[in-house]
Amino acid sequence: MSSPSGARAHWSNRWAFILVTAGSAIGLGNIWKFPYMTGTNGGSAFVLIYLACIIGIGLPLLMAETMLGRRGQSNPVDAMRSVAEEAGAGRWWQVIGIIGILGASLILSFYSVVAGWILDYTVLATQGFSGLGKAELENIFTGLLADPWRLVGWHSAFMLLNLIVVIGGVTGGIERANKILMPALFAIVLLLLGYGIAAADMPAAIRFMFHFEPQAISAPVILAAMGHAFFTLSLGMGAIMTYGSYLERGTSITRTCLYIMLADTGIALLAGLSIFAIVFAQGLEPAAGPGLILQTLPLAFAQMPLGKLVGVLFFVLVSFAAWTSAISLIEPATSFLVERFAIGRKAAVAAVCFVAWFIGIAVALSFNLWSEIKLFGLNIFDLLDTLTTKMLMPLAGLLIALFAGWVMKRPHVMEEIGLTGGAFRFWHGTVRYVSPVAIMLIFLNVIGVIG
Ligand code: PFF
After folding, report:
1. Sequence-ordered strand ranges (E) for 111-201
2. Using one digit for the tens of pLDDT, what is the confidence trace for 148-163?
């Protein structure tokens, strides 16, 4: 179904789609979350389960979400309405799009605050961390969290960066920014890896991440890895569906999604290896938690050769990764406003960014002035994080799996996904059975029934 506004934009070619979608997938999840989760979840056991989840659940769902977007040729809500109509199913399947748009906007609000920390640290890194010890670095981080103006200022700056890009349009803004930022990101990862090999303890990092220890596998590790597979591939939040809707017919969804998955996983593993090589070379603690790249790593930057340069490069890398992901969180709601209500693109982007910015202020204040405001024992930041990444994401993923696996007509699925024979049956079977069961397990864990 075509959109009310007529001709839709499309990516210049399939490489552009791969680049922008990898840009969405590769973000704070890869360079901030993945390393600290690996560190706190026993290293190699977590990495192994994470890889299994990415291949077994993540990739099939990435393909399914891209397929629905391209079939629907519209924003997430109208795309779902269109594919549901084609399948002779109820209009309520649009709820997948609504969950996505709401979820993406809420993720954007706190993602931007965390990205703001990274911008702050990028500036700090230019002055160097030398002479600072563990206590001082802890004070710097707690000082940042305690300062509402600094948090809101950086959050606003980050939101503005995104607004500027997304206003530029699908090819003129999003594609163009990714074409500059993503190659730069790949180059910086390789430089850091080179540094890790040449000057840090890469063998220790490889041992930590890949030396298989079956006894370290446990239910919480499996569930953490599954949840993270969702987050890192940007699944269920309409971002992939919207980007998929700008993909030309005739491009292989299987092949492009495979490249995107490989890029996302590759960057997570290489960033993890580089970070742990530095952490181990300096005798630091890998299980430091969320502060790993903000408190532990600067300690290493303070002591190691070329630390100032490596530190700046590192935080520029994380900023770029966060930027290309945040862009993809703005596009679902933007395309919805433009196509459903015929609002101009500039006004739509401004409205989406304003709402996320406004909610983000509450997130920033939840670290200081409003830290006592709690619901279900969670402050505003934790509440939004739990609601989106632990509830809305798996819920949308479950509905996508059920729709693509059970509701959509098989010939339409085959035509759009471009698979036949055993390959089709394997993918379809995974989406029908494995994904729903796995997601139900995550869900039951989150609401406290298992785990
Ligand atoms: N995949 C991004 C990351 O790993 O940081 C986060 C993300 C982006 C989640 C876009 C969801 C989304 F729609």
Report:
1. none
2. 999 999 999 999 999 9
| Domain carrying residue 69 | 14-446
Q: If you measure from the C-alpha of residue 393 to the centroid of ligand 1, how many angstroms do you get, rounded to a whole number?
A: 10
- 232 found inside a domain: yes
The residue whose CA is least distant from atom 12 of ligand 1 is 234
Predicted TM-score (pTM) above 0.70: yes
Q: What CATH number should be reported for the domain holding residue 357?
A: 1.10.4160
Give the tens place of pLDDT for each residue, 330-379.
999 999 999 999 999 999 999 999 999 999 999 999 999 999 999 999 99
Residue pLDDT, tens place only, 106-145: 999 999 999 999 999 999 999 999 889 889 999 999 999 9
CB of residue 232 inside a 6 A radius of ligand 1: yes
Position 172 in a domain: yes
Is 59's pLDDT higher than 60? Answer: yes
Does a structural domain hold residue 300?
A: yes
Distance 327 CA to ligand 1 centre (A): 10
Residue 328 Cα to ligand 1 midpoint, Å, equals 8
| CA 421–ligand 1 middle distance (angstroms) | 32
The answer to whether 129 and 299 are in contact (CB under 8 A) is: yes
Contact 208 CB / ligand 1 (< 6 Å): no
Residue 421 buriedness (CB in 10 A; 0-12 / 13-18 / 19+): exposed
* Structural domains in the chain (count): 1
Q: How far, CA to CA in Å, does 146 sit from each of 119, 238, 370?
A: 16, 33, 11
